Amino acid sequence: MEALIESIKKVVLLMPVPLFETFYMVFASTLFSVIFGMPLGIITAISEKGNIWEKKNLNRILNSVINITRSFPFIILMIAVFPLTKLIVGKRIGTTAAIVPLTIAAIPFVARLVETAIKEINPGIIEAALSMGADVKQIVFRVMIPEALPSIASGIILTIINLIGYSAMAGAIGGGGLGNLAIRYGYQGFQEDVMIGTVIVLILMVQIIQDIGTRIYRKLLK
Amino acid sequence: MISIEGLYKTFLDTEGGIEALKDINLKIEKGDIFGIIGLSGAGKSTLIRCINRLEEPTKGSIIIDGKDVVNLDKNQLRDMRRNIGMIFQHFNLLSRKNCKENIAFPLKIMKYDKEQIEKRVDELLDIVELKDKKLAYPSQLSGGQKQRVAIARALATKPKILLCDEATSALDPNTTASILKLLKNINKTLGITIVLITHQMEVIKEICNKVAVISNGSIVEQGNTYNVFSKPSHEITKSFLKDVTLNIDKDSLDDPENTKLVRITFFDHKAKEPLIYKIIKNFDVEANILSGKMSSIQGRTYGNLVVGLRGSNGNVKDAIDYLKDEGLVVEGLKHNGSSN
User: Fold this and answer.
1) Element counts in chain B: helices (H) and strands (E)
2) Cα A196 to chain center, whole Å?
3) Residue B314 within a domain
4) CATH code (residue B111)
5) Which of A103, A127, A154, B153 has CB 3.0 to 4.6 Å from A29, enough for a Cys bridge?
């Protein structure tokens, strides 16, 4: 019993900095991936054949880019974008540096989710807007985004959860955060209690975020 | 007001293409409620969508108020669409906007200011009798109420033309009647020309002053509704009049081998003449009425009767000729009820 209390104390004391680092990485990379991924997803959706802004070649290029980036295993992607990371952040490893590969990995994911959400809108609603003389911009901002918002929101929650997992991987190569804690202390330092504690914190985090996400989704559905 | 000339639409997706519309010629006058009736797949939906170019015509012209819609560029097309309202079978309301916001949508697109929008939305809610649902979301409304909101939305920018794409097909008979009443009212009080497509004869009978019958992508008959249906020349037109269910069981006839089954369709004043009595009296045939129904088109009566005629061959033929001379439509039937 005493050993357990001892362990909990140790984990709680170790936790604040890595927890903050994880939040920081996940928050920043979610923000950037939505900023870049959402327009990418919308353009991919509306440039498709038969949609409101048909552009065959552009659509083909965007699809290829999304597919290629999504095919990269995250750990490889992280190393592959080192030069870019260095260019943007000034260094290749560290918590802030990890945001670059995390964002790059999440952009195509967000783009696909947004694209799917947009394409799932009842085409009749788009047709009605067209029949009223709406232009492409008005349809995107006044019809598509509002109508797809519940799906987009649940997609973003999914992205956040994925990014928590990826950020742990980033920890393995010096990104800090909970992943780093679990590997340094738990795996390499043979402190099982720290590893278990980290996993429990991760589980709780995912549960809470998913729960909040589900509430938001329900609230958005009218 | 709307004049469609030599309109063709070919879909190229499939090999060789599908000719959805073939040489359509229609004239729709201001103030008309013009119905286009056809079975599913006849091309009616494509036709109505060509009018505001939700579907691009392959060939031909659609002239609205002197301008050929087919030649408009993107900007002109948008302006033109703002003068044509449209409602749909499945209403197509914005699901995350309430009634007020849905009705305001076309006004916002046209950049009306807030006060104007507020005022116009209230007027429209009044027209469609939904004042108390101003803040309700589509999921909280019944089908009929949704269609009312859609009608209000379509009328928001004061269009001269309203296109109705199977607007009552997803509604129950009572709701259909109330929506038709509303459309008729709008046509009368606001002077809006209505073009509607439907597969429901009820809709045509109830509100359309003119009708076109479409089959396999071609208009087979058109004109004043009563005239078209009182002298139907095409099989499809006749089929829309057969609202009497006909399943005459052979066993229900005394002498099936010698009984000639006919369907008699009669109109207006003929409905008041005792013609069956006359053929019995004058031609020495037995007439056994098996089924019948009276209906009205645009307030004018027509009826359907299925009669079994028995007598000598010559007499039966004379009786049928007599009925035809009197202006009735007489069709021979097989004993299972289908036309022969």
Assistant:
1) 11, 14
2) 25
3) yes
4) 3.40.50.300
5) A103
